[in-house]
Amino acid sequence: MRAASASPPPATGPSAVTASARITAAPGGRLPELRGEGPLAVRRTRSTGSRARVCLVGAMSAPLNGDRLALTVTVLPGAALHVVSAAACVALPGDRDHRAEYLTDIHVGEDAELRWTPEPLISARGSDLYVRTRIRLAPGARLHHREEHLAGRADEEPGRLVSRLTVHRADRVLLDQETRHGPEEPGWWGGAVMGGRRAVGQILLVDPAPTGSPGGAVGPTAAPTVFTDPPTGGLAARMALEGPAVLISAVATDGLGVRRLLERAELPRASTGDTPDTRPGPTTRR
Fold first, then answer.
1. What's 60's DSSP letter?
2. DSSP string, 139-184
């Protein structure tokens, strides 16, 4: 069982780069395919039990405007994989006539598990980046997918970022959403998107095991739960989806606040002062 290859279109502009990488995980912690090119370097790191661990390492500055990057990840049936990154990914300006594209295709097979926890994506001033992530899950697949975006570096105006996440489970759409922020995106600074904050993040948890059973970390809730972080003006919401699955969305003034809220909402029993609410998560527009 393999994911469709995320083949980027030819790069445009005098300094644009086209590059791709592939990761395939097999049972027993094996990695039968692990290759990358250009800025997409992939390295095996110390595994945890039977779960293989791979680190994405930026081998050069990327993505720059005009670059086309593609990553394909396949977790074969019965395998387990954890993907991390060595540092934050910074989108930088380049050929201003063309946006950069970073395409990721992920396929998680039956009774397989993927943990996806890279460091944040930062859209620097003048950058223009389109991120598209497509995930296909078998009915018995488990997923922990975290993504965090920062609108600009410290004391810097942000670049433009459009991020689309589509998740299919058992050939049915589980989640399809798009987040936009930065110049040329009307209303991104308003309450419907970032609410005057510069950091946004989310965790998608999918686990078909019943709650209370070994590995059964996901269970339905009667209503969304809202979490706050007064020091950073942060706000998060934990919402049940079909699957069973849980989507946790958060916004805060900085990346530390978003990470703290996501971790807190992931384990709500360890939190205090959390109250149910019926409001939707504030970070995305559907």
1. S
2. TT-EEEEEEEEEESSTT----EEEEEEEEEETTEEEEEEEEEESTT
| Residue 68 · residue 104 · CB < 8 Å | no
If DSSP states are collapsed to H, E and C, what string results for 23-49?
Answer: EEEEHHHEEEEEEECCCEEEEEEEEEC
Residue 63 tokens read as 């993505």
Residue 119, phi then psi, degrees to nearest 5: -75, 170
pLDDT digits (tens, 9 = 90+) for 149-176: 999 888 888 889 999 999 999 989 999 9
Distance CA(27)–CA(184), nearest Å, equals 46
Residue type, 250: A
Which distant-in-sequence residues (6+ apart) come within 8 Å of 185 by Cβ? 160, 162
**pLDDT of 40 higher than 50:** yes
| DSSP tally for the chain: helices H, then strands E | 1, 19
pLDDT band for position 221 (50/70/90)? low
Half-sphere exposure of 282 (CA within 13 A, CB side): 24
What pTM does this model have? 0.83
